[in-house]
Predict the 3D structure of the following.
Amino acid sequence: MLEIAIAFYCIYFLVNVYTVFMQIDYVKKARLQNAVILTPSKFKVAGDYGVDSQKLSLLSIFYEFILFFMWISFGLVFLDESTSSFFGWQKAVLFIDLFIIINWVLALPFDLYKTFKLDKKYEFSNMTPSLFIKDTIKSGILFLVFGSAVIAGLSYIIETFSSWWMYGFAFIFAVIILINALYPLIRDKMYDKFSPLADEELAIKINKLLEEVGFKSSGVFSVDASKRDNRLNAYFGGLGSTKRVVLFDTLVEKLSHNELLAVLGHELGHFKNGDVLKNIGIMGLVMFAFFAIFGNIPDEFFLQLNLNNEPYAVIIIFMMFSPILSFFLMPLISAMSRHNEYAADEFGSDLSSKEDLVNALLKLANENKSFPLSHPLYIFFHYSHPPLVERLKELGYTGSGIGQSGEDTALKEELEVK
């Protein structure tokens, strides 16, 4: 059975590599064509960044492939022997923690290169070494405290119940819901500085928009995201009483009031269309299927890995092989997600105007240097959002692009919208 699992992993690896190769070749050629959506200079820069980031991704995929076979060949057995004096949930916590820490250390060069070399080169990252270290320490503390508690809880369930995978699913699903509810509070207390919007006029407009849609939140906040990154973003965080509207300070700085309201209108479209609940439901179904599969693995599989059928081994197999299933499920899930994005765009443009949403999307693309074109196969496997070109077409944008004359000091306002 291990041979079958390895074969699926190899297929996953080859498909992943092929799609990235196709994307690199596609963007290399497309970046030399006439600029669309972006200003000419940013079109070229976005293409360069797209190629460089995909090359790094490709290197990371090969690196992970090697690590995978190192783990199943001797790494897991080494960890098993190193933690042989521990039993039950204690062994599971120590085994899984060591596995995650070792993987993190081995992947650290990629994180450092992306943050301090690649993203600095393209003027995205504002991260400093001291802030990186602080973030790492905080994340490590959260993982060791709460992550270990979750591992211990799941281990106890595996040891206690014969049909543990059903109870395990309920436990992990509840943990994920809790994390989503607490996410804004955790970010606020440990990482970012959340502040009420200084622009009172904008805050009033946003609150009026939320009331119009019936979205109840605990407030509208600006977050100092620029201390780490220059990209523009916004999100609705939390669940229930912890729901809040969070705007990156970079977004507040670059977008007009109407454009910001259009972006929020899009996000409110997800709320009004029930996409959040749909996504939770889909995630629950997928997770339930995964637990059913990994909860019924025969002893032979563990023996082939030279492991015992115990909680630590069950959890590690889940962690190592579930990404394969996720990868091949993603095209279906992403297709549904892209459909939802079009519907949210329509809702957002109805709340404000198509012109405002088009303007906002164009500015977001230019400021974030997002290359607007991708290979169809890469879109199929990796895009949860439709390509920007397609989104703009659906909104009725008929312009040939921005800055086609070579001028890129500011976005042109002559947008053609039906």
